[in-house]
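4.2 Preliminary Data

To establish feasibility before requesting continued support, the project team ran the inverse folding procedure on a target of 451 residues. The structure was first converted into the token representation described in Section 3, and no sequence information of any kind was made available to the design step. The complete token record follows.
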């Protein structure tokens, strides 16, 4: 056996081992080159087999008849750009006359099989231009966020999409969102990623955790206000409404509506104000919304109506004042009482982890996309963190957040604790931090021993 043969065997064995144990490494070392060659060589024949070609124009057919030449072949879409990425390939195609972006989307599964890729998705960039993203391996099996992400104010990278791109939670584009998920579905990990991403930003975090604070109170050093029961939550939400009204008064005072001011400089929300006087934006995280909507008596029903009414008011009016809602829960339907469907209608962003029934998936995507409902109920129980993310436009993606332990999230919040703003309206709800030297407070009193 020659040295070349031995080296070739070792390379093939190393490639097979990497593909089995470390698919991302295999893709970067071997897979991207092989896949690029395969796509470029097979492109014309695959497009023809998938029905993505158009006949040649009449003038070419006439010219071929006049010159007594063979009839020209059908033409596939033009490749405008070909770019390898760390997870796959990106092709930007220029469609021929008579072709439609829906044709490419309908042929995505056939393209995946023909090019031997793990997944193929497409989206229309502009009229006549379609971007096809191919993934070389299952990027959601072991989520690894890229080292460089597009971070902007109020834009948080929280998960990875199945096409290898980063899924962002952009509060300025989608002010309010709803996150659903059954127990042990990965909803808490998604929330931790969100808090950890917001921690380095100039933003005030407000939490409502009616599970006695077990989810959000470990992150208290980065929160400007926290509530751990429905009674405190009702008062906290009223304080947020008062802050919202004060911010609107500031915007009115600084609108600068005069004939000498160009229209582009007239303020209509906090982002139009100068940096020196702009109020800090507020993100309100509700860990379990059902605990705010359930009641067992007349007094609790009054409190419940007060809470839901305040949430609806914040969802309708809070965006311009820089108040954004992040509502989480296991279920979110009309059985929670009046006002719930009105609140859900204001929550543009929708994320659903594994749910226990189809009705829960319909709560998230029934008014958006039937395909997203089907994808949500097909999430396997053993794949924690996998979710379907969509919005009111009807588009949806399969995403998965990287695993972030509670310890990692706490460390991130503690590291950026100096960024926690003190809001006067919410001073009464600022969490009290207990030092490690103090004895823990028991949750219940010990009954005295009687003889």
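Position-by-position output of the design step:
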């Amino acid at each position: 056996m020659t040295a070349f043969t031995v080296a070739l065997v070792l390379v093939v064995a190393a490639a097979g081992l990497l593909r089995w144990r470390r698919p991302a490494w295999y893709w970067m070392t071997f897979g991207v080159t092989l896949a690029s060659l395969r796509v470029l060589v097979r492109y014309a024949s695959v497009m023809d087999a998938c029905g993505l070609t158009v006949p040649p124009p009449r003038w070419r057919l006439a010219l071929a008849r006049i010159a007594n030449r063979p009839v020209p072949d059908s033409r596939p879409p033009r490749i405008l750009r070909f770019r390898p990425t760390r997870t796959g390939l990106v092709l930007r195609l220029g469609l021929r006359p008579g072709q439609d972006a829906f044709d490419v989307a309908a042929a995505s599964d056939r393209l995946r099989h023909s090019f031997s890729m793990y997944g193929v998705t497409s989206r229309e960039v502009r009229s006549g231009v379609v971007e096809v993203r191919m993934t070389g391996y299952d990027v959601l099996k072991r989520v690894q966020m890229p080292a460089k992400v597009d971070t902007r104010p109020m834009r948080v990278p929280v998960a990875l999409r199945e096409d290898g791109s980063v899924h962002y939670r952009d509060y300025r584009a989608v002010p309010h969102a709803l996150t659903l998920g059954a127990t042990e579905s990965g909803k808490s990990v998604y929330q931790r990623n969100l808090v950890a991403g917001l921690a380095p930003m100039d933003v005030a975090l407000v939490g409502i955790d009616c599970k006695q604070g077990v989810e959000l109170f470990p992150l208290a050093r980065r929160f400007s206000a926290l509530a751990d029961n429905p009674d405190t939550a009702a008062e906290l939400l009223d304080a947020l409404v008062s802050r919202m009204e004060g911010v609107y008064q500031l915007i009115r005072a600084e609108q600068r509506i005069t004939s000498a001011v160009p229209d582009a400089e007239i303020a209509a929300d906090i982002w139009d104000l100068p940096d020196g006087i702009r109020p800090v934006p507020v993100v309100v995280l509700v860990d379990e919304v059902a605990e705010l909507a359930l009641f067992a008596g007349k007094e609790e029903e009054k409190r419940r109506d007060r809470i839901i009414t305040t949430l609806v008011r914040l969802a309708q009016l809070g965006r311009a004042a820089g108040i954004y809602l992040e509502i989480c829960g296991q279920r979110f339907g009309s059985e929670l009482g009046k006002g719930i469907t009105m609140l859900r209608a204001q929550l543009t962003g929708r994320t659903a982890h594994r749910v226990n029934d189809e009705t829960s998936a319909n709560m998230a995507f029934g008014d958006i996309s039937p395909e997203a409902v089907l994808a949500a109920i097909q999430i396997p129980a053993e794949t924690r963190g996998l979710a379907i993310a969509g919005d009111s436009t009807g588009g949806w993606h399969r995403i998965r957040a990287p695993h972030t332990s509670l310890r990692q999230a706490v460390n991130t919040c503690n590291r950026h604790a100096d960024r926690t703003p003190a809001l006067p309206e919410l001073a009464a709800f600022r969490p009290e931090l207990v030092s490690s030297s103090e004895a823990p407070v028991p949750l219940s009193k010990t009954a005295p021993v009687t003889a």
